[in-house]
Amino acid sequence: MLPKPLLFRHRLRLATCSAAGLAALLALAAVAPLAAQKPAQAAEPIAYTLRFPAPSTGYIEVEAAVPTGGRAATELMMAVWTPGSYFIREYERHVEAVTAQGADGRQLSVEKTRKNRWRIQAPAPVPRAVTVRYRVYAREMTVRNNWVDDSFAMLNGAPTFLTLADGVARPHDVRLILPDGWKTTVTALSPAPGGAPNHYRAPDYDTLVDSPIIAGAPSVHEFTVDGTAHFLVNAGDESLWDLPRTMADMSAIVSEWRRMWRFFPYPRYFFLNVLTGSGDGLEHANSSLLMTMRNQARTRRDYVSWLSLVSHEFFHAWNVKRLRPIELGPFDYESENYTRNLWIAEGFTDYYGELGLPRAKLITADEYLALLGERLQALQSRPGRLVQPLQLSSYDAWIKEYRPDENSVNSAISYYTKGGAVAFLLDARIRRATGGARSLDDAMRLAYKRYSGPRGYTTSEFRGTMAEVAGVSLDDFFARAVDSTGELDYAEALDWFGLRFRQEAPPQDDGPGRAYLGASTRGDGTGRMLVTGVLRGAPAWEAGVSTGDEIVAVGDDRVRPGLFEERLAASRPGDRISLLVARRDRVVRLDVVLGAAPGRRWAVERHPDATAEQQARLAAWLRQQ
Ligand SMILES: [Zn+2]
User: Residues 369, 455: one domain?
Assistant: First the structure.
């Protein structure tokens, strides 16, 4: 619900904009997200009431009326992960004091049957419903968890709601009783029948999990694109933001993805934006939950990075929330859901998230090329690219992408980074193969048309659709870029758009004139300098420097954090230095031959000799005409 006093309308002078009334908006029937597009079931709802009697303690008190279906045993479960974040988070660890009562108020037995399951036994005559009560501790400020304090609550479905473990689709009603001083709640959920404030109905558990809720006193800013209402919902101090500008920029992003996909897949969309001390985002079918630094708009670089996040999460409304790998639905909420295609779901979204910015005229073509170069630099300077194929990076997301350690850089690759690079190459490949007539945009639209239903796409279906649009076989392309650890070849893509890698940086930069060790270090606060990571194949790696080593001296000179970098800067590539390191309370001398800093070899720039045709292709790609 959006009470009128909290709804600030900003008039945007966009050709596609029109004002939409709040009443008309709320009267809109919700379009069910993908997971909910099953036949409607007549199953009885679970009805939750959420209270916050002492919000400063971080607790949510949950009361749920759970239908028994006439069975003596009622099994409840809590999800152990949430879609979009592929990691077992064990949400059940924050659940406390689960109790159950029958209709007559009698306490029922509650037995824990798994880490995330509870079984309630009701003696005959079995009541139609049991009342389950529990507490959830909610103090994790991330987009996939809960937060409650005295001023507001950020609630996600997976870490909040126990549900029946019977797998039957049924409505889930949620009513929030707000503490004094809190004014409202905002969520993409539809109002429950009856239209009482702060009372919502999810047609099924998937939708409940997919619909975060903000409660407190958020400020709600509406903008309309092509007749469809969008809301920026700020929870927290927004005083450092230029709101009209922010909304105009968000509107440009929304318009751009509307233009590419040619439709909005939802009746209305919410950007739920928690202004706090960190940044992140999680996609949902009809909303995204963003976490934004309060001062994120202070520099252009930070602001552009935020716009890129907005663009990325919003693009997911199509790519992954509705066009998805076959394995990502229906979800098993109690264990890992493996797919080899997160490089499409996340990597392509990452590519488009950035590409949307020059297309929406929010950054220049050269600023975009800098972002692309940063992506390729990150990929090409990571030894793990030669170890883990892209499809395996996706498959192992549960144990690697979300569990990085000091050696991840050597052993793994991010499906965001490399997936985005592969999307760039594939886009260029399709354009080249079709003489510029088609692009990855066309291929994504065709994939959406075919596979955005409840089933999803298989690997071969998605790849086949890409090849069909390209009009040529892409078997070799995918085999190399996705299934192998072979180096990517950028020559063809750069040539198509009239681009090149920047010529070597000058030596005073981090270029080739500077000595290079290939180990990261940090001070431990007591004057000791510790090695925190060693790059495979780098001089430190070859010399036997290990993570955890304390670097005590270079030659006979004692080193301290900060001074080591200075010492290195005074050396030249090829210099031989002797490192004294302490390792497990013994000292060891290591001879290191310093290398040359790799420099930013992968920065992308326009080729000065680009032909008019190449320049036109670049302009078409970035929509700079
Ligand atoms: Zn994403």
Answer: yes
DSSP helix/strand/coil, 310: helix
**181-199 average pLDDT score:** 96
> What CATH number should be reported for the domain holding residue 527?
2.30.42.10
Instruction: With respect to residue 3, please indicate whether it lies within any of the assigned structural domains.
Output: no
Which of 227, 461, 451, 261 has the alpha carbon at shortest distance from 349?
261
Cα(341) to centroid(ligand 1), Å: 13
Q: How far is the CA of 610 from the centre of ligand 1 (A)?
A: 34
Q: Compute the distance from residue 215 Cα to the ligand 1 centre, in Å.
A: 24
CA of 345 to the centre of ligand 1 (A): 7
- Please give the average per-residue pLDDT across 516-540, as a whole number: 94
> What is the count of structural domains for the chain?
3
What's the pLDDT tens digit per position in 125-157?
999 999 999 999 999 999 999 999 999 999 999
Per-residue pLDDT tens digits for 247-276: 999 999 999 999 999 999 999 999 999 999
Higher pLDDT, 492 or 512: 492
Residues 582 and 619 reside in one and the same domain: no
Domain match, 205 and 57 both: yes
156 CA distance to ligand 1 middle (Å): 17
Do 378 and 496 lie in one domain? The reply is yes
Distance between Cα 344 and ligand 1 center (Å)? 10
Average pLDDT, the chain: 92
Does residue 21 lie within any of the structural domains?
no
State in Å: Cα 411 to ligand 1 middle. Answer: 22
SS3 content of the chain, % helix, strand, coil (to 5): 30, 25, 45
Give 93 Cα–ligand 1 centroid separation in angstroms: 26
Tell me how far the alpha carbon of residue 230 lies from the centroid of ligand 1, in angstroms: 20
From the CA of 311, how far away is ligand 1's center (Å)? 10
The CA 549 to ligand 1 mean position distance, Å, reads 36
Task: Give pairs for 110-117: CB < 8 Å, separation 24+.
Answer: 113/75, 114/77, 115/80, 115/90, 116/77, 116/78, 116/79, 116/80, 116/90, 116/91, 116/92, 116/334, 117/75, 117/76, 117/77, 117/78, 117/165
* Across 365-386, average pLDDT: 97
Cα 316 to middle of ligand 1, angstroms: 7
